[in-house]
From TrEMBL:
GO cellular component: a single term: cytosol
Keyword entries, A-Z: Acetylation, ATP-binding, Ligase, Nucleotide-binding
Superkingdom, natural source: Bacteria
A biological process from GO: acetyl-CoA biosynthetic process from acetate
Species in which this protein is naturally found: Thalassomonas viridans
Name recorded for this polypeptide: Acetate--CoA ligase
Family in the record: Belongs to the ATP-dependent AMP-binding enzyme family.
Sections of the chain in a coiled coil: none
Residue ranges occupied by any AMP-dependent synthetase/ligase domain in the UniProt entry: 87-470
UniProt keyword annotation of Zinc-finger present: no
Domain Acetyl-coenzyme A synthetase N-terminal: 25-79
UniProt GO MF annotations: acetate-CoA ligase activity; AMP binding; ATP binding
Enzyme class: ligase
Family annotation (SUPFAM superfamilies): Acetyl-CoA synthetase-like
């Protein structure tokens, strides 16, 4: 997949170079790493601040870095308010299309009215600065209103992906001690209605902290509304209290904006915490430079707002840059495999940003579906979430981009807040490589002792510097944050990404994949621990293990092993029931391909499951060093 030696070089066309926001990489890169604070201060100057910062980077509590300290801002001031006083006021901010073909549009002015109304509703419900509001919604405009309404009043949003289920939602509500949940009656997927409110009801039973549940009406599912706890969104915003005027709260640059849970090496998901100031600067700068965004562009990041990609590049970065964003609720191949290409043609989308899994999935239906459509509005294409295999890269480039759209393959993480390794449109491309570090970032590949490895050798990917978009901590767990991600070497802190990678002779970075117990399944990040605990929550399972094995479409697929309770016999029916149990508890994305019944699992003497041994066995490979395997 990442065979650097075989790669061709794709050079940008003259057109691309002539209109690029950043016409040259190397000189600006050198400047940005030698004058990191100066570079970021210049970017921050392009945004509005209620009060300018005193210090660009405060390293006094490293690795708990702080950016733009003393500055007063609010991400909504830049994402909405500032646009109301300029030509963007009447510009389209959001174009939304539902799976059944409904269309809704919001100008920046309209967006401001919606967000202000909802912000006033939240205030009337007693939501205050610093409170965590959980959002569990389908991809509809109200999801964006809810996020921005929280930010506007200084509340912290915690969005839980709408494809997750009861257990995943309950554990995230509980960790955050959320009092308020915003959800919808249901979502649409392939013509079917997903009963989000029922899942939310079950989650609320398990996590009793929720006192108020606000429900958006998105389809015609019958839902139960509990008096005094559950309220319809449309009823609330019709109340006099929901005025379309609401002051944006002036916050410190380092005040928290959101937490977003992500899977890690062990145990429960981690609530990565991001803040207003640095995140505003980082998402808008990366979006403007890497995606070359222009005022007239229509931008489509076809991710879900419930993941970091959506937070940074559907909502915050693009809105700060005053872009017009496309949002689509539904399946890419519904009713036919040309749905996305139809959307691109219909709305004149200029930039599409999606995942290798989605590209592979659509590629499978053949060229005739995209060929039915005029895709000539496309100027740039982006990829994110997992390594892109050269075959999918070339199809995306040739068939979707007609051979003249640069492919911006972006490597980053929930933790990094924004893209960290990516080409600029002017960068010569190698299919499968995310190319070079973004400005300000120094990235090296090191061995177990922390020494930089030679070119073309595999090692651990580390980031040697702080950057404004970095997560500040794990919600309520500073110690875990420091221990999981940071290493001090000769007085300098290094960030450990958890990925393995190579750098080739030209300094191009080739990310290989996760080194820890995290699985990337269809680009979704799932922890083996969460899948295992969902399995073990079934009364007939006593122990379980989950591993990822290569899969043509999904990148990786989940395979599981289960030890059954005494007296229970394994059967095909039980295997299916267990797979469905995991889907019910965690969400369909976590449903295992299979369950193998075993009598024992390979473990270390300290009792840790050796997943690499299971994986090697499944692949018929050498099991490697077994010295820590228990008898
Ligand atoms: C992990 C982070 C970045 C937003 C979506 C994922 C993998 C991400 C790439 C890429 C190779 C990639 C890494 C990383 N990854 N982008 N362009 N090439 N691998 O965020 O869910 O936090 O997952 O996704 O393994 O560590 P996330």
């Amino acid at each position: 997949m990442n065979d650097a030696s075989s790669s061709e070089l794709f050079k940008p066309s003259i057109d691309v170079i002539e209109q690029a926001n950043v016409p040259e990489y190397q000189a600006l890169y050198d400047y940005s790493v030698n004058n990191r604070e100066g570079f970021w201060a210049e970017q921050a100057e392009t945004l509005g601040w209620y009060k300018k910062w005193d210090k660009v980077l405060d390293e006094s509590k490293a690795p708990f870095y702080q950016w733009f300290t003393g500055g007063k801002t609010n991400i909504v001031h830049n994402a909405i308010d500032r646009h109301l006083t300029n030509a963007n006021r009447n510009k389209m901010a959001i174009i939304w299309e539902g799976e059944n073909g409904q269309v809704r549009n919001y100008s920046y002015n309209g967006l401001n009215r919606e967000v202000s109304q909802f912000a006033n509703v939240l205030k009337s419900m007693g939501v205050e600065k610093g409170d965590v509001v959980t959002i569990y919604m389908p991809q509809i405009p109200e999801l964006i209103f809810a996020m921005l309404a929280c930010a506007k009043i200084g509340a912290i949003h915690s969005v839980v992906y709408g494809g997750f289920s009861t257990d995943a939602l309950a554990s995230r509500i509980e960790d955050a001690h959320s009092r308020v949940l915003i959800t919808a009656d249901g979502g649409w997927r392939r013509g079917k209605q997903i009963d989000l409110k029922t899942i939310a009801d079950n989650a609320m039973k398990r996590s009793p902290t929720i006192e108020v549940c606000i429900c958006v009406k998105n389809n015609d599912l019958e839902v139960e509304m509990e008096a005094t706890r559950d309220f319809w969104y449309h009823d609330l915003i019709a109340l006099p209290i929901a005025s379309p005027k609401c002051e944006t709260e002036q916050l410190d640059a380092e005040d928290p904006l959101f937490i977003l849970y992500t899977s890690g090496t062990t145990g429960s998901p981690k609530g990565m915490l991001h803040t207003h100031g640095g995140y505003s600067v980082y998402t808008s700068t990366t979006h403007r430079m890497a995606f070359d965004i222009k005022p007239e562009d229509r931008w489509w990041c076809a991710a879900d707002p419930g993941w970091i990609t959506g937070h940074s590049y559907i909502v915050y970065g693009p809105l700060i840059n005053g872009a017009t964003i496309m949002l689509y609720e539904g399946a890419p191949n519904y009713p036919y495999p040309n749905r996305w290409w139809q959307i691109i043609e219909k709305y004149g989308i200029n930039i599409l940003y999606t995942s290798p899994t989605a590209i592979r999935g659509l590629m499978r239906f053949g060229d005739r579906w995209p060929k039915k459509h005029d895709l000539s509005s496309l100027r740039l294409l982006g990829s994110v979430g997992e390594p892109i295999n050269p075959e999918a890269w070339k199809w995306y480039h040739q068939v979707i981009g007609n051979g003249n759209c640069p492919i911006i393959d972006t490597w980053w993480q929930t933790e990094t807040g924004g893209l960290m390794i990516c080409p600029l449109p002017v960068t010569p491309l190698k299919p499968g490589s995310a190319t070079k570090p973004f400005f300000g970032n120094e990235i090296t590949i090191v061995d177990d002792e922390g020494r930089e490895v030679a070119a073309n050798e595999e090692g651990k990917l580390i980031i040697n510097n702080p950057w404004p978009g970095m997560a500040r901590t794990i919600f309520k767990d500073d110690e875990r944050y420091k221990a999981l991600y940071w290493n001090e070497v000769d007085g300098k802190w290094r960030y450990l990404a958890g990925d393995s990678a190579k750098k080739d002779d030209d300094g191009y970075i080739w990310v290989i994949g996760r080194m820890d117990e995290v699985l990337k399944v269809s680009g979704y990040r799932l922890g083996t621990a969460e899948i295992e605990s969902a399995l073990v929550s079934h009364p007939q399972v006593t122990e379980a293990a989950a591993i990822g094995l290569p899969h043509e479409l999904k990148g990786n697929a989940i395979h599981t092993y289960a030890i059954l309770a005494q007296g229970v016999a394994g059967s095909e029916e039980l295997a299916l029931e267990l797979r469905e149990h995991v889907a019910r508890e965690m969400g369909r994305i976590a449903m295992p391909e299979d369950v193998t019944f075993v009598d024992a699992l390979p473990k270390t003497r300290s009792g840790k499951i050796m997943r690499r041994v299971l994986k090697a066995r499944a692949l018929g490979q050498d099991e490697g060093d077994l010295s820590t395997l228990e008898e």
